Amino acid sequence: MRMWFVIQVLKVLLLSLFRKKLTLVILLCVAPPIIIYSTITFLTNTIVIKSETLLIYSSSESVLISDKPLSGMCTVIRYGLASLILTNNTSLNTFLIAVGYLRNLSYVLNLEDLNSNCSHLSNIASIGSSLFKRLGNALQDTVNICIDGVCTTYCLAYTHLSYFEDALIIENIEGVENLNTSFLCIYASKDISKNILVGIVNEVSNFFNIYILIAIAGYIPVISFAVVKTLNMLG
Amino acid sequence: MAEGTSISILSIVFTMAISILFGIISTYSVVLSYFIVYIGLYIFNALGISLLSLPQLDAKLLIPSLSITCISIPIGYIVFKLRGQHVIESS
């Protein structure tokens, strides 16, 4: 019985395949959704391939401030707003980051020594290059930095050129307990860029898959027409 | 073929044959569209006009042919139930 069934199916199949008109009708019915799907799949694959070439333009490293220690090289920091007291007794509210050891971050922050004459001070600070350019003469070798009304004198030993160009970085994490505690993580920039690109490509692919499903669903009446036509032709 | 066989068996035979037929033709369309794109881009690349990278052969490309095969099973069955008997009688 099973063998008979298979033979009958094959018989109908061969009869259908040898009728060129019938094959053509089915081909015309199934071709549009397949062309839509193939085009979109090829497009998505091309985006994936082309997006990887964009990674060439990524820089070597990237810095993130994260609430949790992420995979990568992370160090505990504290951050918040502080007042920088200038020579003319005016103050400037600025973003402040407190780190454990400033010199450990010299490679990432691209620290430049200001040759300040304040070696007697243990509290050292680095000023962002953009902030340093703007303030210019309003700064001395030693500066007062006030956090919640408590002022401390720091030696302005460095200027950092790479990140946080409008911020102050101080080497005194223990003395600023009332600031937000977080993690400064150093990443290979390409990894982040790759993750972002992969995420975008996946999102695009998901959208495309939904559109493809809608397109194929729209062809159900056409497919049913083809089945009716097949039945009539075989009959 | 209809002699001695019930309509329900005939409808299953027809449904299976039609779904396989749809599967074969849609797979043929997928392969054809892949080769058309591949050959077209290969010619462009050979001429030094690098428009796009050559498409990669992916199992994902067979999703529409599989879905069309699956869709044609209930459609084929319903169509045969509704119109098949009339066609057999008229033939």
Question: Could you walk me through the main structural features you see in this protein, from its secondary elements to its overall organization?
Answer:
Chain B: Keywords: Membrane, Transmembrane, Transmembrane helix. Chain B: The chain crosses the membrane at residues 7-25, 31-54, 61-80. The complex is a heterodimer of chains A (235) and B (91). With 235 residues, chain A is an alpha+beta fold. Chain A has two domains: 16-56 and 192-234; 69-189, no CATH class. Helix content of chain A is 46%, strand content 28%. Chain A has a six-stranded mixed barrel with strand order 2-3-8-5-7-6. In chain A, a hairpin with a 5-residue loop joins β2 (73-85) and β3. In chain A, α2 runs antiparallel to α5 and α2 packs antiparallel against α6 (220-234). Chain A is rod-shaped and about 100 Å long. In chain B, α1 (7-46) packs across α2. Chain B is built from two helices and no strands. Chain A binds chain B through residues 5, 8-13, 16-17, 23, 26-27, 30-31, 33-35, 37-38, 41-42, 45-46, 49-50, 212, 216, 220, 223-224, 226-228, 230-232, 234-235, and chain B through 1, 9, 12-14, 16-18, 20-22, 24-26, 28-30, 33-34, 37, 52-53, 55-56, 58, 60-61, 63-65, 67-68, 71-72, 75-76, 79-80, 83-84, 87-88, 90-91.
Number of helices of chain A: 6
Look at the structure and give the mean pLDDT of chain B: 80
Q: How many domains would you count in the coordinates of chain A?
A: 2
Q: What is the total tally of β strands of chain A?
A: 9
Level of helix content of chain B? over 70%
| Content of β-strand of chain B | under 5%
Structural class of chain A: alpha+beta
Brief account:
The complex is a heterodimer of chains A (235) and B (91). With 235 residues, chain A is an alpha+beta fold.
